[in-house]
Amino acid sequence: MSALSRDDVANLARLARIEMTDQELENLTTEFGVILNAVARVQEVATTDVPATSHPLALTNIFRSDVVIPSLTPEEALSGAPASEEQRFRVPQILGEEA
Amino acid sequence: MSALTYDDVIAKYEPVLGLEVHVELNTHSKMFCGCSTIFGAEPNTQTCPVCLALPGALPVVNEKAIESTILIGLALNCSIASFSRFARKNYFYPDMPKNFQISQYDEPICINGYVDVEIDTDEGPQSFRIEIERVHMEEDTGKSLHVGGATGRIHGADYSLLDYNRAGIPLVEIVTKIVPGTGKYAPEVAKAYVAELRDILRSLGVSDVKMEQGSLRCDANVSLRLIGSDVLGTRSETKNVNSLRSVERAVRGEMIRHAERLNKGEKVVQETRHFQEDTGLTRSGRSKEKAEDYRYFPEPDLVPVTPDAKWIETLREGLPERPSLRRKRLQEQWSVPDKEMAAMINADVLNIVEETVLLGADPTKARTWWLGEVSRVANEKNVAISELAITSKDIAEIVALVAQGELTDKLARQVVEGVIAGEGTPAQVIAARGIKVVNDDGALMAAIEKVCSEQSETADKVRNGHLPAAGALIGAVMKETKGQADAARVRELLLGHLGQAAN
Amino acid sequence: MINKTAAEMAESLTSGATSSVALTQAHLDRIAEVDRKVHAFLHVDTQGALKQAADVDAARARGEKLGPLAGVPLALKDVLVQKGVPTTCGSKILEGWRPPYDSTVVTHLKNAGVVILGKTNMDEFAMGSSTENSAYGPTHNPWDLTRIPGGSGGGSAAALAAFEAPLAIGTDTGGSIRQPAAVTGTVGVKPTYGGVSRYGLVAFSSSLDQAGPCARTVLDTALLHEVIAGHDAKDSTSINAPVPQVVAAAKNGDVKGMKIGVVKELNGDGYQVGVRQRFEESLELLAKAGAEIVEVTAPNFEYALAAYYLIAPSECSSNLARFDAMRYGLRVGDTDGASAESVMNMTREVGFGREVKRRILLGTYALSSGYYDAYYGSAQKVRTLITQDFNNAFEKCDVMVSPTCPTTAFKIGEKTDDPLAMYLNDIATIPVNMAGIGGMSLPCGVAPEDGLPVGFQIMSPVMQDQRMYSVGAALEAALLSKWGAPLLSLAPSLGGAA
What we know:
The complex is a heterotrimer.
Chain A: H1 6-15, H2 22-39, H3 42-45, E1 63-64, H4 74-78, E2 84-85, E3 88-92
Antiparallel strand pairs in A: 2-3
Chain B: H1 6-12, E1 13-24, E2 61-62, H2 63-75, E3 79-80, E4 87-90, E5 100-103, E6 110-121, E7 124-139, E8 143-147, E9 159-163, E10 170-176, H3 186-204, E11 216-226, E12 236-241, H4 244-263, E13 272-275, E14 282-284, E15 297-298, H5 309-317, H6 323-334, H7 338-346, H8 350-358, H9 363-381, H10 392-403, H11 409-420, H12 426-433, H13 441-454, H14 456-463, H15 470-480, H16 487-497
Parallel strand pairs in B: 12-13
Antiparallel strand pairs in B: 1-10, 1-11, 3-6, 4-5, 4-15, 6-7, 7-10, 8-9, 11-12, 13-14
Helix pairs in contact in B: 3-4, 8-9, 8-10, 10-11, 13-14, 13-15, 13-16, 15-16
Chain C: H1 6-15, H2 20-38, E1 41-44, H3 46-61, E2 73-77, H4 104-111, E3 115-120, H5 154-161, E4 167-171, H6 178-184, E5 187-190, E6 211-215, H7 218-228, H8 246-252, E7 259-263, H9 273-288, E8 292-296, H10 304-319, H11 340-351, H12 354-367, H13 373-394, E9 399-403, H14 419-423, H15 430-435, E10 438-446, E11 453-460, H16 465-483
Parallel strand pairs in C: 2-3, 2-4, 7-8, 7-9
Antiparallel strand pairs in C: 1-3, 4-6, 5-6, 5-10, 9-11, 10-11
Helix pairs in contact in C: 2-3, 7-8, 8-16, 10-12, 10-13
């Protein structure tokens, strides 16, 4: 079974945008070893001829009509904002660029 | 700055293109919620729990968006998938409230189509087929205002302000397969492709396709390889290409930039670049050491889309005339020579000329005005024709007035000038400026007699058969009538007066 | 008053014997009396509840037609949004957040005149089996305050068992309604997936989550089920079909001729002795009531736990990405020069608890390129196999049964250091969510060795929820005959201040 290195776990934390402490990374590395061992057994029965299920129900084509319904007021929309300015959400400087 | 010219580049390398076009659909409501999509509203007035990604909110698919996407696929000769699903594309960015985008991954709704474009080459018109890999649906992001930096750009900004009105507006992404074989015409082909796409989308009525407003966005992928090689070069992706002209310039610029690097023995970096309108060059954007892992998986909050064959056929039957067929039809109807037709297309005046003709104007006259006088003014002011104040209605009116003899061509030019300057409708300009053709033969004769008596020697020359001398007299009569006489009528009367036949 | 069933309370209201305001106040008093010990509630909406109650009383006085549960109080798991009322999901990252909208479940409750007393404690973002993962401290089992009340919906179950509310709403992703019901001696139902709208239910694992009714009796649960169930156009995964007739089934309780399937893989082998004992006694009672007990097998159930601990973390890693300090919730680290990225990273580090972080990372891994097929992809295939197992088994029986969980309530702190041991609590409940079918837990006695409640699980096929209620009502009636009084009358009184 594949074990995860500490670097692997640190990379996952980076992808998940969580600033973990060294202790947390250590603990998780150990825990993942155990957990992955346990969950990997799904591969025993997941053969190629078994289709995957994404949904318990076989629903398809659920749509809504192209009709406008009232939005939240800007006050409601911004009600939880940690910071706002000029009716917009204020966020700290963004380092990365738009995709 | 290198001395590498475009000709240098194409002598050694051949380009391979890939084009990704995003289209904002013109549905009334957003892709997954009922918020309005109207452009330009006050910030955060068109948001709800769904498009703000409040905890607990769920998406529901807009049926019109599906229909529009299928129409696009059909117009691009694609196959429509009988089973299609949405997928989550996971990455973090403040303008994307869920920190994943609902998009499509390996089960897009339309696949394998093509678009034919025609461009003008040294050897005459040449056709290129651009193959379409896929057409899929996704949602737009919010808009950020970067505050504190020098140019309002993200670099050097202190903080950003987010408006989520745009978040969730339906987007359709059209991705080409790789496009080899364009050679030195790559920039023109790219431009023609985007223009054709724009015309198709406009004819479908699914988007207002305004590149300046962002409802049509183009990302151009360019790579170079040595002529004759079948190994693909490293590509760069250029974003922020906001006009047809920019598409052409961006492709040309990237080809030169790649060649400069390759000639120096440097590698082309696979990266995203941003096109700069002012310089025509691209600037490096995000250069990631590790490619982002989007961890796609099927969207569990939505169910598959399985359009039935009957629905697809109904939509197919309702497809409007193809732009290329329309162009051929108009060319025939209006009897336009090839070169003039190409000129109209290049100047992007075909639609407005057609509008003018539909209002009753003679096609040739309409074309002459739009391609001639109006284009001249637009070029002078360095703006697009669509930004001028003059409309098809105005031109149609002016053409009618000239046909009726109310205006001469010369006077008509003054009226056009006045309308563009914002002085009002043609009627208003004529009234305000006192423009009037002097039609009255009596008044003309009076002017003619006056001029002939003042320039009796020249008049005698004409009496004696020396017709070219009449030119000076006509000119003087025009001056006398403040240019408001019909020059042809003046000539007729003058020659008659001097005993010569007008011919 | 507070010891009555919801149906009895509704009767008192209709007859005029009491008012909703008085009934609500009695429950608020009870909460004030015992919740310091139980800690079932994170927020008590005193003003809001009394106003709702007064409105119902006024409507009744005007002679308006009211629903069967109008005026009866209820406790709401803090994972469902209620407009203007703090909704934390048991997490620090949403501390103080007041939603600007109502979940559909809340809309149904308000329309039915049900009085929402407040929001109950839960494992953070519904991840856990003991309510020990709440950022606000655990809830204590009213049967023994040193023990867990189950999870993730321990608050709702404890509120019922402590008589702080006659009705409660829970949510169930892998057993979070049923397992707390089992260890607190109450009734809890996870409806067929799609039977109750998820709009406004803060998502943990979208393809598994489902809100459901909880109460002290099967009939009360059925009455609440009919209030909250139904199609919702705002939830693309909700079923567009009439709500199953669960109240009629609960009132009827007739199992004559019904085939009851005992799942070989979940028959109690290896479970706590008293749990197995009570389970088997219940089978005998059902047989006496006219049902036929048959054995069925579900060979892929042994993979269910593994598949669940791949699917749920994967979906949650994506669902919880929105908690990024930009638009709502906690924001830390926003000092001079800090970037949005660092604020996000710091906030999520501080705002999320250990179990949540563990599952987010596990899910991120399971979805990673290169690992998708081996983990998430494979787990979704196991799901197909489990569904097939259920389909095959349901050809031989009308419902399937098992003990709800392997043990009675364990001590607070006993399993917190061993995630895998904790996950095993859900071994019998998870297959139900994987296939999207209905599941109920009702009390079937106390284990002789520790005097703690044992739960009996009933599973019904997709859209056949009424069958659970028929069998549950039959068993409940038989047990009531046997005991002479409801099980909860054995629970400690918790009475008196301090």
